[in-house]
Amino acid sequence: MTVAIHIDDVSMTYVSPKATNHVLEKVSYEVEEHHFVSIVGPSGVGKTTLLRLLTGLMKPSGGQIVVDGKAIDGPPEGLAVVLQDYTRSLMPWLTVEKNIALPLVRQKLSKEERRSRIASSLEEVGLTGNEKKYPWQLSGGMQQRVSIARALATRPSILIMDEPFASVDAQTRFGLEDLVLKVRDDFGITTLMVTHDIDEAVYLSDEIIVLHGKPAQVIDQIEVELEFPRTQLDTRNNPRFTELRTRVYEKVQGL
Amino acid sequence: MNSRLVRFLVGAWLPILLIWLWWTLSADSTNPYWPPLEQIWQRFLELWVFEQVPIHVLPSLRNLFIGLAIGVSAGILIGAHIGLSNLAARFIIPVVDFIRSIPSIALIPIFIVFFGLEGEMRIAVIAFATCFPVLLATNQGVRSTDPTLLDTVRALRFSPFQILWKVRLPAAGPQVFSGIQLSVLIGFIVMIGSEILGAGFGIGAFAKITADSFLIVDAWTSTILMGLLGYVIYLIFRAVERFVLRWYYAANKLEM
Amino acid sequence: MSVIKRFPPALISMTVILLLWQWASGLESMGSMLPSATTTLSTLWTSLQQAATWQSIGITLLQGAIGLVLGVFIAVPVGLLLGLSRFGYYSTQFTLNFLRVIPPIVLIPILLLILGPTSQMAVFIVAWPVFFIMAMQTAYGVRDTDPVLLETMRCYRLGVARQIFHARIPSAAPFMALGLRICVVVAVLGSTVAGLIGGAPGLGQDLYYAESLGLTAETFAIVMLLGIIGMVISRLVEWAQPRIVFWTAGSRA
Questions:
Q1: CA angle C116, C122, C123 (to 5 degrees)
Q2: B-contacting residues in C 137-176 (Cβ below 8 Å)
Q3: How many helices, marked H, and strands, marked E, lie in chain C?
């Protein structure tokens, strides 16, 4: 077992002239390589703060985040992101294929290689044939698939998702969840996801971290030992699924 | 330091620097076209505080005010009513669109033909030129009332006339004011233009006459005065807009 | 309604107005002040067959175009820099806005002294407002770039230069396009004003002579011509704008 991300005693305090907001207190956790980890907790607890620290967009006020044996200082190599606001994270003036190609400019790829990356990523998310369309010509679920394809095309080792399915309808959501599981299977990407949806966390994850308190701490780590491949009907009907979601629910509520 | 003071300082250093640069760089100027700012400033105080104001500034502003009042009210009234009827709009809007496409200043010669060079001409041309932006903006605003809002008041059995005055027009307020803003600018341009063209009184005429007679310092003072007037008129417009549309600014949490 | 279906309403109302005009010009009280619609239109028609008229149109448009290009080319880099720096943006807001709301017509008397009644003067009169409008629009647009977009790019380790070219500038493009649309109208207006008030060459100057020589038919014909030019240009710009910034909500309808 290898540790992909080491969250080491991370604390975060926002200081503004008006108030000091102590959000995270000595959060520690080790994410295993190829694992799918969900971060859950009540609203406003600091899940998104933790996620932003993991992307390297913000620096923790205490502790460090170690990726590949190095404390990160800015977004680490091999990171890809999928954010909730797909309309805001895709460029409306670029076609689907150019959106996917944009992060690839940093990787020295031949023209054919780049084209095949784009094609295979689109195929993975089931959007082949939409290369020349603009994001706003696609439905919300399809736009989120483009975000995922963009992430995959960079061949990331770590994928970070911030409530990726919160803005799509329930039907589309199930499809995207299964897509994410398939992607994880095909590429073995270490995945971290913040979600509000406890069922979704249980369905997708190998492990769930529950944040609670003010400042927030990790109050529980739950191993989800449900077997793969998971399916929307069988997995969700499994009594063990119900037990796990009850446990996560109680922890989130602070019971 | 509080944040208002910081905001003031951040906004003020550049204009202060520019004025200081102008003052020092022009101090020893012998170029007749660029007299020292100090001279301009002293002449400005002699002329415009406030000896010449009743002769050259107040009549101009009175013309502008009356012209704008007529133009804007006509624009709102006509715009609101043709906003109610698709048929009327389809006949009238193209004509309005054509007249609006004429550079407003080019209307002055036509009005000189009819009204001569006196104050009435200026008021008439300002009123005419400022009517159209408001008319078009009001027409568009009145037509784009939120349908849910309209259904609600219809259910409350408002008459169409009540709906226009109580619902459609207030809802169109922000658009109407963006039209008025354009009108105020056009009114000011036409005011100055009509004064420069129709020799006689007025700040524009004063600037033209002094420039033509090589009274360069005087011409500079009137240029500065016109600039300041333009900005003050803009500030007055903003204050009126903020007051009338306070509901809109409050609802959208826009910075006052 | 059947009449409306066969003829566009615009055509009908134009005809009605021309008929009214024709009738009014025959009234005693009008004297010779109002030339008849037919006289005006035929004056317009003959003048359109003269090279001098086309030369005036050309000069008016050229002065506008040069001023526009000059103003835009200075304003866009300035606006870009101001938009990238918080301090730069807030330091210049007041000054730029102050100068923007002052119409350039106030500069004409003094410019006449310095530059004389020339095309340079007209170009300056056009470039001045264009600069302030475009600098402010560009700076605002650059600042308005969606932070989510920028964060996404940072997560993929795309550098500052790429953020500027792939996110900041495209985000500012709709604001710049709107500014440009305003500026095109301002350019024709400025070029005409410089001619009419300041004696620079072009249609404005022709209008000034026609009016001061009491040639009422010519005066009306030139004003109509200016209206037609203005309309054609606004239509062109309205057509082009959504095609340039095709991704904005308004152009997708």
A1: 120
A2: none
A3: 12, 0
- Do A230 and A197 lie in one domain? The reply is yes
Domains located in chain B, CATH noted: 40-251 (1.10.3720.10)
Neighbours of chain A (3+ CB pairs under 8 A): C
Q: Buried b / exposed e across C133-172, counting CB within 10 Å, b at 16+?
A: bbbbbbbbbbbebbebbbbbbbbbbbeeebbbebbbbbbb
What's the pLDDT at C138? Answer: 94
- Which amino acid, residue B168? R
Find the closest chain C residue to B106 by CA distance: C223
Q: How far is A52 from chain C (nearest CA, A)?
A: 10
DSSP chain A: --EEEEEEEEEEEEE-SS-EEEEEEEEEEEEETT-EEEEE-STTSSHHHHHHHHHTSS--SEEEEEETTEE-SSSPTTEEEE-S-HHHHS-TTS-HHHHHHGGGGGS---HHHHHHHHHHHHHHTT-TT-TTS-GGGS-HHHHHHHHHHHHHHT--SEEEEESTTTTS-HHHHHHHHHHHHHHHHHH--EEEEE-S-HHHHHHH-SEEEEEETTTBEEEEEEE--PPSSP-HHHHHHSHHHHHHHHHHHHHHHT-
How far, in Å, CA of B114 to CA of A68, rounded? Answer: 85
Q: The domain containing residue C68 runs over which residues?
A: 51-251
Pair C201, B87: CB distance under 8 Å: no
Which residues in chain C are closer than 8 Å to A81, comparing Cβ atoms? 152, 155-156
Asked whether the beta carbons of residue C223 and residue B207 sit closer than 8 angstroms, the reply is: no
Give percent of chain B above pLDDT 70. Answer: 97
Residue pair C94/B15 in contact by the 8 Å Cβ criterion: yes
In this predicted model, what pLDDT tens digit does every residue of A180-196 receive, in sequence order?
888 888 888 899 999 88
Q: Is A11 part of a structural domain of the chain? A: no
Greater confidence (A26 vs B201) lies with: A26
pLDDT tens, residue by residue, A110-165: 889 899 989 988 988 888 889 899 998 988 888 988 998 999 888 888 999 998 88
At A117, which amino acid appears? R
Would you call B13 and C91 a contact, using CB atoms and an 8 Å cutoff? Answer: yes
* The pLDDT value given to residue B50: 77
Residue B174 CA, chain-centre distance (Å), reads 16
Q: Which residue has the tokens 């938009």?
A: C83
Q: Which of B135, B136, B179, B98 is nearest to C232 (CA)?
A: B98
Interval C142-167 mean pLDDT: 91
**Cα A189 to Cα A5: distance, rounded to the nearest angstrom:** 12
On whether both A150 and A181 belong to a single domain, the answer is no
Question: Closest residue of A to C167, CA-based?
Answer: A91
Query: What are the φ and ψ backbone dihedral angles of A6, each rounded to 5 degrees?
Result: -115, 110
The domain containing residue A221 runs over which residues? 34-58+69-78+156-255
Per-residue pLDDT tens digits for A48-85: 888 889 988 888 888 889 988 888 888 888 889 888 88
pLDDT surpasses 80 at C102? yes
What is the rounded distance in angstroms from the CA atom of residue C158 to the CA atom of residue B31?
53
